[in-house]
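Following up on my earlier thread - several people asked me to post the actual chain instead of describing it. Fair enough. Here it is, all 129 residues.
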Amino acid sequence: MTETSSRISEHEIEQVIGRLLQFGVLLAAAVTLVGGVMLLLHHGSTAVSYSTFQGEPAYLRSLRAIVTAAFAGDAMAVVQLGLLLLIATPVARVAFTLVAFALQRDRLYVLVTTIVLALLLYGLVFGGA
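Reply from S.P.:
Thanks for posting it. Predicted structure:
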């Protein structure tokens, strides 16, 4: 096997990235849709008061609490989980691209992608603080 044939081709990487993005968006949309239907079934006839703003409940502000509540059947948490999956999709793409560049031994792109991934994660973790 030559060095060229043992490496992953750019076309194969693009195909996997495309599928990753499609799967991530479809999964996020499906989870959000299920949560939206659950919300409508449980609270669809409830009158809405727009006179006061009510932010997200405290239990919907941490990843662990969202996942726990979503698997317990909380409709708002299911919608929140769908939105988190949507946000995680491009981050997963960057992480996959980093692995692909590392397998190709492309040091420059590994460095650039590592910086991009670090900035994304920093923004997600500390951006709201």
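The first helix runs from residue 3 to 6. That should answer part of your original question.
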